[in-house]
Amino acid sequence: MKPFTESQRFTQWWLWLIIIGVAGLHFYSLYQQFYLGKPFGDNPTSDEGLIMFSLIPALLIVLFLLLRLDTKVDTEGVHYRFFPFQLNYKLIKWDELEKAYVRQYKPIYEYGGWGIRGWGKDKARNVSGNMGLQLEMKDGDRLLIGTQKPEEMEKAVNAFWKG
Q: pTM for this structure?
């Protein structure tokens, strides 16, 4: 069997609506203050301050365009990274695992949402949805890696893991 690979991005319309809405307000303030020559708001900031403050939503848009969860399941184990926070893949080898299975989960209730979630012994890496590969390590750590292809992920785990 060939390795399973998946690359996921934040594609939720409501998330992009919030990000673009906030950015739009900042860009409108730049337009009003620089192009129309009217100070923005009741207590306007300096031009330099407005430019610096407007960089935040621009950087947020760039960050969310770059963010992705990459997963690979092969003969070595499960490789994953949350780019750009993790440039290199982290590998969990098959012999480190007690259990590996695909399951449905509740992202907000169990992990507080999506992204790089959890700390201590129970962590998650997910971008959307409610299906993931649950990895339970022999040392007691647990990691859930979200997937939009649960059937394919399950086939790959069953093919490569002999646990």
A: 0.81
